[in-house]
């Protein structure tokens, strides 16, 4: 009873609903509980229709509302309900009431488990949707039995119909048949139980037959009926073999004898092979019962033994013997006189090896001797073994006939050496090649000789012959050491704890078999105690010094500090240990699940901690045992580098006393002892340390020992190092001797004469140049004012508050990920729309006549053919050998192959590894530098590698990398939209790309508009931030961004389908357009209309409306079609290298009267006109805007790179595919003896970051359903270039002529490079992935995406290349030996014929 149910719980009468009904509330005395007394029938045969059950219930509760129901449930599965009817008078009081209900239909019942003929279900009666009583019932199915014996032996009423060969519950269905009744079927019968079943028997259940032997099987048949004739024997060998059988009589018994069959099986190493067989009868070939499971056991003597001794000791049932040089039956031996049976002895015993090869002179060492023909029984060698002339007693239990002897050596008085000799029954002798030595182990030293009473101290016993013997152990007192390791010169073990049976000063005794050597005294000391720890805090990277004071600390040889976080432990080594003091390094959490950004100065992480000091348990967790204060974990300190703009050089006078370095979080968990400042190779002792400033005393600056600009490094603990910059030392020393003074005076006199001459010349010409000077001065003043204004604006932009940007883009909007197939298609076939490529078309392919069965058969056979690894590799290599096989075709073949193998990723991976190994081998043999490997797509393998990562990293993109990548895209777009963007050239005020930077002063004003999407009647106003210099198309685009910010780009309307309508009053409405009759004409240029052109006010009301199809609008649409085509002769995305200057971009002439359009910048680049040069501002001044944009976006770039180059971040584990491929490249480097780490680093960078991540970063529209404008694309190109430079190990020498994309992140790239190197190192140190785990992951990926691509279309496209290279492919297949063995040419020709038949 469930106590929580209303009708089945123990309760007071007042709490029971309708308690006045005697069947609703049962008092605690004189009443029996409700229960099912009887179910008829209780065992139910499963039939097509339901069965009516009669259920008798004691104390059935009275029904108030609703109806009774029967519920049938199996285990915890879903119940099946049927209606129950109450029989008799419902108002009549009776202890037992009867219900009738039907069982569920057969299709609603669970399936009976394989090998069973029944299932037990729970029948419960319910009312008011609650069960109140239950009982088990059994459903059975006689039809599940397939043999007479199992049918008639069932616990249920089943019978066997012999001629129909079926088991039935209803005997009426076999009225004309012979029936064998089951043991559980009631009533008299002539053939009861399984003993009357027609069946076969034999005196043995295994009939042993040597392979490659003809044999006829004979078995006894029982209870055969007259109509059971036409017998056959069926054997399931490598192929199914059927032969006829003859029925004969022998002593009134039926004998069935099969015709001769050659029993043979493939495989030389298989010792035996079981062959199930059946005897069939009649036209329908029904099998006779085989209740004893009689079967044939084929065997091969030659596979059972490789030498005579093993052969003659095989199981006697097999009748194997030795024939010259192999194990056979006597019939297989050419000359029976050469055949040795198991009663003979094998000649020529041989000792292959024995171990150990030395032991104590006292004996007792167990020597294991392996060899051939070492006797057949234990008695053959029992008294015939000597070692170095000393008898060795054989051990019966460890003897393995003919193969192995284990004996225990005797003792000898002196050290001696000699071979192992074996005498076999005085007939055959053998002597080992090696010698065994009796030695006397000698103990030299015990270290340490003391430890805590809790034990756990690692001790080392040095000496000679420390590994002599087989049973070696160390005892301290009466207790054994644990964790013992043996070496020739030492024994390592761990001391046990001090026990009641052990003295504090106990003898250390070493046992070498029978030798016992008493060596040293070991002293147990009281466990150490810890009194104080300071400081009880550390930093994230660890390595800071923690001072520990206590007592008896020096009795621990290797103490460690341990800090606990969740279920993990993190350790720090301790050093400088004395009796009362030691120093420990705080543990590092870099490789932990703790993230550095989760720790702050205000909210440090509090952790429990302790010390690992052998087995002293009381110190392992001081927080738990003593309620000590927790260990406080603070963020790492950070030191700011010197900064004078470019060179990171800090100037200091030679005699300055102190050097100061700024930073943050400096003294949260640090003392002066934890920080070391190095100027060049000389230390700078730290004098003070505050939260933001470090002060140290520089050394004396001696040019003989120090460079002019020594580097300054700061080390924090032993895990953190900061490069601060260089010191510029100002020297003031001067040693003026008399000769030097004379020379200086003479030079000064000459200089004075020259100055006088120059002054006189200047005075003559000063009057002539005064006017020119004043004119130039005025121009310079104007230029200086403009430059100062621009620099001031750039500085203000660098201080932009990052929180505003982060708040804007971290809203509740979801990330519009593309689905798996769309993402893969954009990578595999980037130049083909997804819905136009055959591999994504699941209707009839235009080239395939799928209704033609020959084509279908050809595709199936070609699919099977490419599943052959040898064929696929030869096919790819054949194409790549052709000089006309272009790079574009290689990409296409690789992508088609990837699509065809996508549902078998294990095979895909195997093919990829083979092709990559070939590519690496080819690279090693050619003159190409190994670092160029995988850099370009010059082979099918390289594109398949990209596709492989694409298939396997999609989930990682969604769950981990997608968020920071989307945040970077949104941040770039929003920052660009904050300033003017030229609608014609895509140049912007805020840009990371120098090529797309507006290099002029654009006056603009930010505005706010309220826009309604009139296509939705209930749409509310959306606040839109725009600029007064925006074109109408730009305004519409920003409005759509605000209205559809949570929607994928493909789901929102095109801006060209909408008009922007300005509501100037209650009835005034003006449609704004990029070009209309008010557009300004400036010579040959027409300027696109902007909000300021229309004098739109701040906080204006706008509406987006569908374009009307009036004649006026059609005319204007025709005009606007020219506007929408304004472009520059520069298409596509900027390259990752420095692209052309925007001054070289020429605006295309439009067909509209030859007019040229411009928006913000009129590119009339004749800067050399006389009189205009003074008014042109130096364009490089505006490059400071790049720094402003870079500073604003810095955090988003860092987050993306940190996510990609971290083995565990954002709760995402490293994908198995990355670890697996990197391990493969490491193995290939090792295989080709490549020791240069730069080469392997470059391989990894070319394989994953260059081939996959840069493509994703450069093209986020592959991953997300977004629109990527030209200016956003240019900024992403700079980020991708930074990504690429971070993965390179070569040093980039920068100069003033270097691309701005490299200069912009020059200071950040060294940090990013460290991230990449650490990432590769962390992956290398991770445990290798087992083939089972990798195959499981690949199989799951195949299962999840098995129907993403049209397999037939991919196969058809690949087959076109087979037709193109048919002759070369057939020739290469014919030349390959293994291809000939697999008949690959014939199989290929059949496929070609099937396709040609369609033509």
Automatic annotation (TrEMBL):
GO annotation, cellular component aspect: plasma membrane; semaphorin receptor complex
Species, as recorded: Paralvinella palmiformis
Cell inner membrane recorded as keyword: no
Keyword Transmembrane helix: yes
Annotated ranges, domain PSI: 141-198, 300-347
Record SMART domains: IPT, PSI
Signal peptide range: none
GO biological processes: regulation of cell migration
GO MF term set: semaphorin receptor activity
Topology in membrane: Single-pass type I membrane protein
SUPFAM superfamilies according to UniProt: E set domains, GTPase activation domain, GAP, Plexin repeat
Entry coiled-coil feature ranges: 766-793
Protein's name in the database: Sema domain-containing protein
Taxon lineage: Eukaryota, Metazoa, Spiralia, Lophotrochozoa, Annelida
Domain of life: Eukaryota
Record key words, sorted: Coiled coil, Glycoprotein, Membrane, Transmembrane, Transmembrane helix
Annotated IPT/TIG domain residues: 348-439, 440-525, 527-622, 636-739
Transmembrane region(s): 736-763
């Amino acid at each position: 009873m469930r106590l929580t149910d209303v009708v089945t719980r123990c309760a007071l009468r007042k709490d029971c609903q309708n308690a006045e009904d005697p069947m609703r509330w049962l008092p605690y005395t004189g009443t029996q509980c409700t229960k099912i007394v009887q179910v008829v029938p209780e065992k139910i045969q499963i039939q097509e229709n339901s069965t009516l059950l009669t259920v008798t219930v004691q104390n059935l509760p009275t029904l108030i509302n609703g109806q009774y129901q029967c519920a049938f449930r199996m285990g915890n599965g879903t119940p099946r309900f049927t209606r129950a009817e109450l029989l008799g008078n419902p108002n009549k009081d009776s202890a037992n009431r009867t219900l009738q209900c039907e069982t569920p239909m057969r299709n609603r019942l669970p399936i009976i488990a394989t090998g069973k003929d029944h299932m037990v279900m729970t029948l419960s009666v319910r009312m008011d949707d609650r069960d109140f009583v239950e009982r088990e019932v059994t459903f059975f199915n006689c039809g599940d039995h397939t043999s007479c014996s199992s049918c008639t032996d069932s616990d249920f009423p089943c019978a066997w119909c012999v001629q129909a060969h079926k088991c039935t519950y209803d005997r009426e269905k076999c009225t004309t048949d012979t029936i064998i009744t089951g043991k559980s079927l009631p009533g008299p019968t002539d053939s009861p139980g399984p003993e009357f079943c027609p069946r076969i028997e034999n005196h043995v259940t295994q009939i042993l037959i040597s392979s490659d032997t003809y044999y006829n099987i004979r078995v006894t048949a029982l209870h055969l009926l007259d109509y059971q004739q036409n017998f056959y024997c069926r054997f399931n060998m490598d192929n199914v073999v059927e032969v006829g059988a003859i029925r004969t009589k022998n002593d009134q018994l039926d004998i069935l004898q099969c015709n001769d069959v050659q029993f043979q099986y493939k495989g030389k190493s298989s010792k035996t092979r079981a062959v199930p067989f059946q005897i069939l009868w009649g036209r329908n070939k029904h099998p006779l019962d085989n209740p004893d499971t009689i079967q044939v056991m084929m065997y091969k003597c030659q596979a059972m033994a490789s030498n005579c001794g093993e052969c003659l000791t095989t199981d006697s049932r097999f009748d194997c013997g030795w024939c010259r040089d192999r194990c056979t039956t006597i019939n297989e031996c050419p000359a029976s006189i050469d055949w040795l049976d198991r009663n003979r002895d094998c000649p020529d015993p041989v000792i292959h090896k024995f171990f150990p090869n030395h032991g104590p002179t006292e004996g007792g060492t167990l020597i294991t001797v392996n060899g051939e023909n070492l006797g057949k029984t234990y008695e053959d060698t029992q008294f015939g073994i000597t070692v170095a002339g000393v008898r060795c007693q054989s051990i019966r239990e460890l003897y393995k006939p003919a193969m192995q002897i284990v004996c225990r050596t005797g003792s000898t008085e002196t050290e001696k050496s000699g071979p192992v000799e074996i005498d076999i029954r005085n007939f055959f002798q053998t002597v080992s090649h090696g010698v065994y030595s009796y030695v006397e182990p000698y103990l030299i030293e015990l270290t340490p000789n003391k430890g805590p009473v809790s034990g756990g101290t690692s001790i080392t016993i040095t000496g000679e012959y420390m590994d002599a013997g087989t049973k070696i152990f160390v005892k301290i007192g009466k207790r054994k050491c644990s964790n013992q390791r043996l070496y020739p010169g030492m024994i390592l073990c761990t001391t046990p704890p001090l026990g009641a049976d052990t003295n504090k000063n106990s003898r250390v005794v070493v046992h070498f078999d029978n030798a016992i050597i008493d060596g040293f005294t070991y002293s147990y000391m009281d466990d150490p105690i810890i009194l104080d720890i300071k400081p009880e805090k550390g930093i994230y990277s660890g390595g800071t010094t923690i001072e520990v004071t206590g007592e008896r600390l020096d009795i621990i040889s290797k103490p460690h500090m341990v800090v606990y976080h969740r279920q993990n432990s993190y350790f720090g080594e301790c050093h400088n240990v004395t009796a009362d003091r030691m120093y420990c390094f705080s543990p590092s959490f870099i490789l932990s699940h703790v993230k550095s950004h989760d720790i702050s100065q205000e909210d440090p992480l509090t952790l429990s901690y302790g010390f690992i000091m052998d087995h002293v348990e009381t110190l392992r967790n001081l927080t738990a045992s003593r309620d000590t204060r927790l260990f406080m974990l603070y963020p790492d300190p950070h030191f700011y580098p010197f900064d004078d703009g470019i060179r990171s050089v800090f100037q200091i006078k030679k005699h300055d006393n102190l050097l100061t370095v700024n930073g943050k979080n400096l003294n949260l968990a640090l003392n002066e002892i934890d920080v070391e400042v190095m100027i060049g190779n000389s230390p700078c002792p730290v004098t003070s340390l505050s939260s933001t400033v470090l002060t140290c005393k520089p050394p004396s600056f001696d040019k003989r020992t120090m460079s002019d600009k020594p580097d300054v490094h700061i080390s924090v603990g032993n895990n953190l190092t900061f490069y601060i910059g260089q010191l510029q030392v100002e020297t003031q020393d001067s040693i003026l001797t008399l000769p030097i003074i004379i020379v200086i005076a003479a030079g000064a006199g000459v200089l004075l004469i020259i100055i006088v001459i120059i002054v006189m010349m200047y005075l003559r010409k000063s009057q002539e140049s005064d006017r020119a000077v004043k004119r130039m001065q005025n121009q310079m003043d104007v230029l200086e004012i403009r430059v100062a204004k621009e620099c001031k604006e750039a500085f203000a932009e660098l201080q932009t508050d990052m929180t505003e940007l982060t708040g804007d883009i971290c809203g509740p909007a979801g990330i519009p990920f593309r689905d798996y197939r769309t993402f893969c298609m954009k990578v595999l076939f980037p130049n083909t729309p997804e819905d136009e490529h055959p591999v994504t078309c699941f209707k009839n392919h235009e080239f395939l006549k799928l209704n033609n069965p020959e084509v279908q058969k050809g595709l199936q056979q070609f699919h099977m053919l490419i599943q052959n690894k040898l064929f696929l590799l030869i096919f790819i290599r054949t194409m790549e050998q052709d000089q006309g096989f272009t790079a574009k075709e290689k990409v296409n073949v690789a992508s088609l192959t990837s699509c065809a193998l996508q549902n078998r990723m294990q095979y895909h991976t195997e093919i990829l590894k083979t092709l990559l190994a070939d590519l690496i081998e080819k690279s090693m043999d050619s003159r190409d530098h190994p670092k160029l490997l995988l850099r370009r797509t010059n082979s099918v393998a390289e594109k398949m590698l990209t596709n492989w990562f694409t298939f396997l990293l999609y989930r990682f993109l969604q769950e981990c990398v997608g968020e920071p990548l989307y945040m970077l895209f949104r941040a770039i777009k929003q920052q660009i939209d904050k300033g003017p963007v030229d609608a014609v050239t895509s140049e912007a005020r805020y840009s990371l790309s120098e090529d797309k930077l507006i290099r002029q002063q654009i006056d603009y004003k930010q505005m706010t508009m309220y826009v309604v999407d009139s296509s939705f009647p209930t749409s509310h106003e959306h606040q839109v931030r725009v600029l007064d210099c925006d074109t109408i198309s730009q305004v519409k685009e920003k409005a759509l961004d605000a209205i559809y910010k949570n929607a994928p780009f493909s789901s929102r309307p095109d801006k060209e389908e909408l008009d922007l309508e300005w509501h100037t009053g209650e009835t005034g409405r003006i449609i704004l357009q990029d070009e209309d009759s008010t557009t300004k004409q400036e010579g040959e240029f027409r300027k696109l209309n902007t909000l300021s052109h229309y004098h739109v006010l701040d906080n204006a009301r706008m509406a987006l409306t569908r374009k009307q199809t009036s004649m006026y609008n059609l005319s204007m649409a025709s005009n606007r079609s020219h506007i929408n085509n304004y472009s520059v002769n520069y298409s596509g995305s900027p390259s990752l290298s420095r692209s052309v200057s925007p001054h070289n971009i020429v605006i295309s002439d439009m067909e509209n009267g030859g007019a040229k359009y411009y928006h913000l910048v009129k590119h009339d680049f004749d800067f050399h006109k006389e009189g205009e040069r003074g008014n042109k501002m130096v364009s490089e001044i505006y490059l400071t805007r790049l720094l402003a944009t870079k500073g604003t976006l810095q955090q988003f770039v860092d987050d993306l790179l940190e996510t990609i180059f971290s083995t565990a971040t954002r709760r995402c584990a490293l994908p198995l595919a990355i670890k697996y491929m990197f391990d493969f490249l490491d193995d290939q480097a090792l295989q080709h003896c490549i020791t240069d780490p730069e080469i392997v680093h470059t391989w990894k960078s070319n394989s994953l970051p260059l081939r996959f991540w840069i493509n994703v970063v450069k093209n986020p529209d592959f991953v997300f359903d977004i629109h990527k404008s030209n200016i956003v694309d240019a900024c992403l190109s700079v980020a991708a270039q930074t990504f690429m430079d971070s993965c390179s190990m070569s040093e980039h020498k920068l100069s003033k002529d270097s691309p701005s994309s490299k200069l912009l992140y020059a200071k950040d790239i060294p940090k990013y490079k460290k991230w990449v190197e650490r990432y590769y190192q962390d992956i290398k140190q991770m445990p290798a992935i087992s083939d089972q785990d990798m195959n499981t992951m690949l199989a799951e990926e195949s299962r999840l995406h098995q129907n993403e691509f049209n397999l037939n279309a991919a196969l058809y496209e690949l087959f076109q290349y087979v037709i193109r290279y048919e002759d070369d492919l057939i020739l290469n297949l014919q030349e390959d030996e293994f291809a000939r063995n697999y008949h690959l040419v014939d199989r290929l020709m059949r496929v070609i014929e099937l396709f040609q038949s369609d033509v």
